[in-house]
């Protein structure tokens, strides 16, 4: 077989997959397991987990890992919950081992370094090693991502599983770090398998059909890029859609219009990131979107030196909900009487076009003043882009006039500007001090009588910190 690989008759990935399959088959033989019976076996997931941790042989370990993952996929929700709960307790840290390691460290026998390392090893939950061994199975990474998706669906009603989720995030953050990710362009010639997933995973502006997808990928003034991981072949982890334009857009409709007139790429001066979608629910909390934006900016700047401006056209998904909660709060610092009357008229069926000034002023307060207890902006999209070093550039009234846009943000959209020479300074200001870097136009939209009032704490704006930008 090695000669076949050297001669090119067998591809290296095929050889590696064949080697893994061989190990699995040999492992089953060692354990007396029959592959054809696995589907009908009612295996105890916890016992399989213990068996996997106890094995030293690679072949038998791969076989047990594959069996456990397959059994979890087949299991009903009660059995899945039982196994995940066992990860929290049965496969948690060994308390006795921790106590002994602490005592040894305090006695400082044999040198501080070795005892500290022993304490660290004892404190690591057994489930981390179990998850690592499960990852050795064929398709183990994708199976574990799906397992965490199940875990996340149960977490609200079972908060005792939080420690398990923390360990998943800890391991996934290493396995999916930027060094392992591959940036690939997506265009109309990309395989149908991937294109179907782009349609399915688009989370910001739904792709209606194949013609809609073609309108976003094929014209010379459109781009799409995605991050892939070697263990999740043909599964984009996150992708961004880009429009090349002559100016900063204030509305999404013209960008998605199928009848629009495309321009040549070399005529564009602005790259607009109008949709960023994470695709894997099981990787929630594992951040690689910031790497995607920065990498795409660098690639586009290199490909098209005529591009001078890099901006987003972003939704504001929590704005309307926040505003409605503030309207119910009599002591809200965000709402003055003029705004309250205008928003009340809107709720009674008034013309939203007549509410431009109060909505824009309220939006300025939302971005510049409304904070989480952590001191960061309440808007999740703002936290993402500001954390990446962007500047809040412009508020676009009725930038999204669709039913979804009006419901979630009164139609508001915003532009975040990625100025290459200021990205690092903006990021540091936000990360260190919570500074919202915003353009003068955005700051001027904040009504003087609101910006000058003392902030009144409420359940929705839990911070009295002032913004410097």
TrEMBL record:
<protein>
    <submittedName>
        <fullName>Malonyl-CoA decarboxylase</fullName>
    </submittedName>
</protein>
<dbReference type="InterPro" id="IPR038351">
    <property type="entry name" value="MCD_N_sf"/>
</dbReference>
<dbReference type="InterPro" id="IPR035372">
    <property type="entry name" value="MCD_N"/>
</dbReference>
<dbReference type="Pfam" id="PF05292">
    <property type="entry name" value="MCD"/>
</dbReference>
<dbReference type="Pfam" id="PF17408">
    <property type="entry name" value="MCD_N"/>
</dbReference>
<feature type="domain" description="Malonyl-CoA decarboxylase C-terminal">
    <location>
        <begin position="179"/>
        <end position="418"/>
    </location>
</feature>
<dbReference type="InterPro" id="IPR038917">
    <property type="entry name" value="Malonyl_CoA_deC"/>
</dbReference>
<dbReference type="InterPro" id="IPR042303">
    <property type="entry name" value="Malonyl_CoA_deC_C_sf"/>
</dbReference>
<feature type="domain" description="Malonyl-CoA decarboxylase N-terminal">
    <location>
        <begin position="91"/>
        <end position="176"/>
    </location>
</feature>
<dbReference type="GO" id="GO:0006633">
    <property type="term" value="P:fatty acid biosynthetic process"/>
</dbReference>
<dbReference type="InterPro" id="IPR007956">
    <property type="entry name" value="Malonyl_CoA_deC_C"/>
</dbReference>
<dbReference type="GO" id="GO:0050080">
    <property type="term" value="F:malonyl-CoA decarboxylase activity"/>
</dbReference>
